[in-house]
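Lab notebook, bench 4. We co-purified these components, and the gel suggests they stay together. Before we commit to crystallization screens, I want a quick structural picture of the whole thing.
Request: model the full complex, all chains together.
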Amino acid sequence: MAKAITIFGSTGNLMYKKIIPAIDSLYNQNLIEEDTKIYCIARRDCTLQDYIEDAKNYVKEDVDWERLEEKFTYILFDINDGDHYKKLKSRMEKDAIDDVFFYLAVPPRLFPIISKKISQSKLITKEDENKRIVFEKPFGEDLESAKSINKNLWQYFKEEQIYRIDHYLGKEMIQNILVIRFANKLFASGWNNQSIESISVVAKEKEGVMTRGGYYDTIGALKDMFQSHLLQMMALITMDHPTNFTSSAIKDAKVKMFKQLKIKEDDLFLGQYEGYLNEEKVDSNSTTETFVYLKGYIDNERLKGVPIHFLTGKKLDEKRSEIVVHFKDDKTLLDNFENVKPKNNKLIIRVAPEEGVHFQFNIKESGLENIIKQASLEYCHTCNALTNSPEAYEKLLLDLLNQTKTLFTRWDEIESTWEIVETIKHKHIKPYVYSSYEELISKLKNQCEVDCYDL
Amino acid sequence: MAKAITIFGSTGNLMYKKIIPAIDSLYNQNLIEEDTKIYCIARRDCTLQDYIEDAKNYVKEDVDWERLEEKFTYILFDINDGDHYKKLKSRMEKDAIDDVFFYLAVPPRLFPIISKKISQSKLITKEDENKRIVFEKPFGEDLESAKSINKNLWQYFKEEQIYRIDHYLGKEMIQNILVIRFANKLFASGWNNQSIESISVVAKEKEGVMTRGGYYDTIGALKDMFQSHLLQMMALITMDHPTNFTSSAIKDAKVKMFKQLKIKEDDLFLGQYEGYLNEEKVDSNSTTETFVYLKGYIDNERLKGVPIHFLTGKKLDEKRSEIVVHFKDDKTLLDNFENVKPKNNKLIIRVAPEEGVHFQFNIKESGLENIIKQASLEYCHTCNALTNSPEAYEKLLLDLLNQTKTLFTRWDEIESTWEIVETIKHKHIKPYVYSSYEELISKLKNQCEVDCYDL
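Here is the predicted assembly.
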């Protein structure tokens, strides 16, 4: 009996950019069993050889195509045709597959039909412990649709069989947040409103919508980035010490933060980059935001009063995802010093593109005068790891193979993050059109409080 | 009217190694007024030119001798002869000096006679606000002698006129400890027994007693280093937040720590380096310790149970003074990880010879496996300051000129540190003779608890 990976949407971007390189890398590390089959499912009528030849145009990494050709099976598939699922089932039985996950690398609107037919064809029954189904975000487009999708899923599958991928959770520094916070008591004990002045959760992109215009225009930055990545980062950086470090205890602690997050609506700021309306498949009257800034607070004793700044958008000055924790200075001490710049004291967890930790704290400048300056301590994760830093997808695929759920989102995480988005009444706001990041930030600072974004 | 600096012991090591280079450097920075006179007092019968020529053999720094010759006045002096003090007084009046400090760079046994005669000759009266007297440590050789010296001093001078130098307090990183601790709330709030596992206060020397054998043999490491430098470092690293950052509030907070320090006598360990008995002017049967390790605790709620390891000695593996704060790990988190080495998490404040801060904390190793490793963050103070790091004595002399008392020790600091030494019954212990640091530490670890010194 053998394992298999089945990917719906095998001619898509995700397959070419993430899944194929990750599978290749896992083979290189002998982390996939030799007899594991990879079923590549798509609607294009072609041979495996044609599929591979075409894929070579899109996969940028230097993968071992010969090996992949040996492991791959290409399956022409109409997702609406129940017979195709049955044929797939026979094929798997013939291949003696008893452990498989079905990866739905397809637009979310196709989740219901594929789920239904996978269930009807008995590719997965609720009794199959070693069969599971994997979804990419977004899990719905709002609370209602997410609930409806989920209700649908639960009809066919047990929650344990459902794996919801947020690839951000697979990133090294995201996995690292809890270790940094809790394996170091110094950080752990200072993680409160006595020490922390503010937190910024940032995901900036330099590119525009590229080829994703059609999908993106129906979604916008708030749902595309804030609901998932930014809120996940927020939860990890703010959560209480979990009762233990099992997947479910961590998820419990995160969900608690989602429920305690209060958004300050007055400080909501939306932007749309100049030229967005001319992008392919974008409505020429679209008011979809490509930039969002908002401010929240965690409504508990420990973090009461600590502003959390969220900022994400496209066509900004650089690609950068990071969390910045600003610590307080001691005013009574600083009064004795000259030239004190406030907020020198911060911990930055860099998530992308480079990974690392930057810790900056106040010291007395060397010399006869009393001047405070900042000591900058840099730890570059990617540098030290050399080529060893695995792409998030490797980790996620490996966990999928091993049925480890830590890095996948549970339904109540989805539900509570959509509930947050639900509370943000952004539909009536016309986004500000920005031509550059500098201009955007200057406009933003004029509108909201001065400290709204201080990186 | 003008200022003056008067140094008793101008042909001594301290004058050549520290005071002359510091004075020269202050002139370079225009921090000494042009008409300030420097009276160099010693018992050698020679001219200023002879004195300078001789000094050139001892001063290693490249100083401006021409300028110094212009500022210096050499005074042949018998400290027992009252007339010499009177002549000095006349000389100063002639030079129109109204602001002066008398720096006693002489062995402590001479403090009483010089103090008495300075007072009798009215070089300083208790009414002179701009006249002050400066002592080098040690301030006595035990509690009793310190008290007696001090009683003596108070007879002649007001406490405000008395400056007790501990040159360690002038070192950059010592001045920096309070800034690092209190200007960074993250550190401030984690400074307790919830976060801190242990503290090590270390001053290792590579050299032996050199030419100081005669003096050292009557004193030993406990009084020479522990009573002053080590306890001062301990107080700064453990003290509560002072009510404010004035000199006197900081001293209050330090004295509180001296009083709360409890020494664990069982863990006292004394050593004497091989060959010490053959050193010049050392008693050939001496049981004076050249190495001391001991363990203490601060008896207050905040630091209850945190062991403080003191270690100092001569002829060790390297010259190094530093404070190491070990933070706790989170066992419940670490249980999920492989290959966890405990105590990865520490802050090292490097005092000498290099100055800097080293911060080491736990992160997850990059990769698909769960391994904790340490991220090392280095801040080299001396590196960033380039040539700008002032010798401790520059800072001390400048503060003496400006009557700033922060870096000088107050009587109750002296008293309470001698009280600590008094409680340590070390006289009956024969020191262990060590030939190398490795051997010494191995012996030490056998004797005391395993964690007695874990750098």
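Chain A touches chain B through 63 residues (CB under 8 Å). Worth comparing against the SEC data before the next meeting. The first helix of chain A runs from residue 13 to 28.
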